[in-house]
Amino acid sequence: MAVEYMGHTCGDIVTRGEDPPTRLGFTVVELLVTLILFSIAMGLGSAVFSGYQSRTAAQRAAQVFAMDLRLARTSAVRGREAVIVDFDEAGMSYCIRLESGDTIVKREFGRDDDIPLDLLNLQLTGDSLVFNARGVGDLSGSGSSLGIASFAAGETIYDVSFNVMGASKVELR
Description:
By secondary structure, this protein is of the alpha+beta class. It has a domain at 57-172: minor pseudopilin epsh domain (minor pseudopilin epsh fold, 3-Layer(bab) Sandwich). 30% of the residues lie in helices and 31% in strands. The longest helix is centred in the first third of the chain and has 52 residues, at 28-79.
């Protein structure tokens, strides 16, 4: 049984007065245009996102390093034992260990690691920083009270300036 409402029967093609029947739905051309626009938007979005990842990777690595310097100094004072931060620029890593040999933390940076970096550069004469039991650092005879570590990912470079007390400042270069 067909139901009639305002001159239309339910289940019939929708008509408006004398106009030809209207079909509901999308044409292939409309779907194709929508798909093309969506693809372009996704391409632009992924390009922007990849730049964001490299910017944040360098910043995150610099912030982690600054926190690890505070950890090293705090561990030296609390444990009343020297804490050594050994740097390996070629391997893009550093290790914080007690003088007794126990490792506190080891960080590795690189394309296949937690924080993808292109460069880790330490501007010190030696490759280690030692915090004595009182928490005072020795920058490997650099003659300076300030060291600088640079972390780069893509075009983005962050510098961490630090002193013999473990205080640090993270800056975008």
